[in-house]
Design a protein that fits this description.
By secondary structure, the chain is an alpha/beta fold. The protein is built from eight helices and seven strands; from the N terminus they run H-H-H-E-H-E-H-E-E-H-E-H-H-E-E. About 40% of the residues lie in helices and about 20% in strands. The protein has a seven-stranded mixed beta sheet. The relative contact order is 0.16.
């Protein structure tokens, strides 16, 4: 039912279109979220994310698909050491002012050679050509005792307006994702599901933990 909304693996230009879209939006992204209902949604999501992330001063965090660095800035302000990654150059540049290190890289093929206490991926996984493979890559960056927190649009009729808006307004496709498939991918990388919730009607928020050694 939802497959026609997802990116076509044979469409080599899709990732480039997503990159251009978010590079173009980078200058106005924060301002858009400060308006009306979008501000309320962003604040609601942030509370749910923070409850699962449980940030503490001194922890090292990877914000994968960081956008303009909104979450990264909040984490830095709380004393965490933050690396931010985004494949849109404008977004990575905007986040750079708020973090220890900002990198313009595609999270689909991420291999930083370093692991983190917390890995955060909010609003980016749905644009990946292969979200399951992408999640497995993020999971490999989680330290023992660390957590991976991901927010995605869930596979349900309630998420269809979001997917259609992305397609009709911006010309990009998104995956609507199932928690079960993502959990299977995380478990293959040695993580265990700690919690999941639905902060809004069309989204799914999941938190995994790598058992301490």
């Amino acid at each position: 039912m939802y497959a026609w909304l997802a990116p076509d693996p044979a469409d080599a230009g899709h990732r480039a279109r997503v990159c251009r879209l978010y590079d173009r939006l980078s200058g106005s992204y924060s301002a858009r979220r400060r308006r009306g209902v979008l501000r309320w949604l962003a604040e609601r999501d942030a509370r749910a994310i923070w409850a699962l992330l449980e940030p503490r001063p001194g922890l090292r965090v990877l914000d994968a698909g960081c956008g303009d660095g909104r979450h990264a800035a909040m984490l830095t302000a709380q004393g965490l050491r933050v690396w931010a990654v985004d494949f849109a150059p404008g977004m990575a540049a905007a986040a750079a002012a708020h973090v220890e290190r900002a990198l313009c890289l595609d999270i689909e093929d991420l291999d930083l050679g370093i692991c983190f206490d917390r890995v955060l991926c909010i609003g980016a996984l749905e644009f990946a050509t292969d979200p399951v493979r992408c999640l497995e890559g993020l999971a490999r960056h989680v330290l023992p005792g660390g957590r991976l927190v991901v927010q995605v649009p869930r596979r349900s009729p309630l998420a269809l307006p979001y997917a259609l808006w992305q397609r009709l307004r911006h010309g990009v496709h998104v995956h609507l994702l199932e928690g079960r498939l993502l959990d299977e991918a995380a478990r293959r990388q040695g993580l265990r599901l700690r919690a999941q919730c639905r902060p809004f009607v069309h989204t799914l928020l999941l938190c995994w933990e790598r058992p301490p050694t």
